[in-house]
Write a structure and sequence with these properties.
Strand content: 15-25%
Number of helices: 8
Number of domains: 2
Shape: elongated
Number of strands: 9
Order of helices and strands: EHEHHEHHEHEEEHHEE
CATH topology of the largest domain: Rossmann fold
CATH architecture of the largest domain: 3-Layer(aba) Sandwich
Length: 222
């Protein structure tokens, strides 16, 4: 599972940096590297582009995984260059941006937009796999999530617009419920298509914290 991101328009990046003239750039060696939005090549390209725009880049790094504790060690390693900057441009997902914000005491600015959590179907091609809704129904839908696989996010289907197994919103896209039916049929459980799923409960996944009760009856907050 990867966090799928895309580079913000350069004009938007510069607008965020309008009161910063010394910038430290941070990339991510995991998701952003795979998606080619924040790996070494992209960070070096951003460095050159900022310098061409008159910015002073005090340094840069690509943290192995920007959203975990590796961030703390990396910021300590580059403390001098970070402290001499008045803005940190983060070429990682929103989790990486928030993680950097915990350790630097500097303005932390995203260079990327975080789109979704996805799986790589083929090299360079990612599809949204999970909406993290807190009410998983994959057991009824043959492991295919209709919330993400259906353009309309329907829980019950198909809708009246499906045509020869294709979606009316995108005629190049397979109808999610056609795929679900075909898989359930192959599994010998097409009857599960008749199971009604009520509207999602927006409180199923409370924020900002979720309390998980582990098997040994201890509580862990994440």
């Amino acid at each position: 599972m990867k966090s799928i991101t895309r580079l913000k328009p350069y004009a938007e990046i510069m607008q965020q940096l309008e009161d910063c003239n010394r910038v430290f750039i941070v990339g991510c060696g995991t998701c952003a590297t795979v998606v080619q939005t924040g790996g070494v090549e992209q960070v070096e390209a951003m460095k050159e582009q900022l310098q061409d725009s008159g910015m002073l880049v005090t340094g840069w790094t690509v943290i192995p995984t920007a959203c975990d504790e590796m961030t703390s060690a990396s910021t300590a390693e580059h403390e001098s260059a970070i402290q001499s900057a008045n803005g940190i441009l983060v070429m990682a997902c929103a989790l990486g941006v928030q993680r950097l914000n915990l350790y630097t005491g500097k303005r932390v600015l995203p260079a990327l937009d975080t789109l979704f959590m996805g799986l790589e179907e083929s090299p360079g091609y990612f599809v949204e796999a999970c909406d993290q809704c807190g009410e998983c129904i994959l057991g009824y839908t043959a492991g295919i999530c209709p919330v993400t696989a259906c353009h309309k996010g329907l829980l019950n289907g198909p809708c009246g617009g499906t045509n020869k197994g294709k979606c009316e919103v995108d005629q190049e896209k397979d109808c999610a419920f056609t795929l679900i039916y075909q898989k359930l049929r192959d599994l010998g459980r097409p009857d599960l298509m008749k199971h009604y799923h009520p509207p999602k409960n927006a409180q199923a996944c409370p924020r900002p914290k979720v309390k998980i009760l582990e098997a040994k009856e201890t509580e862990q907050w994440i």
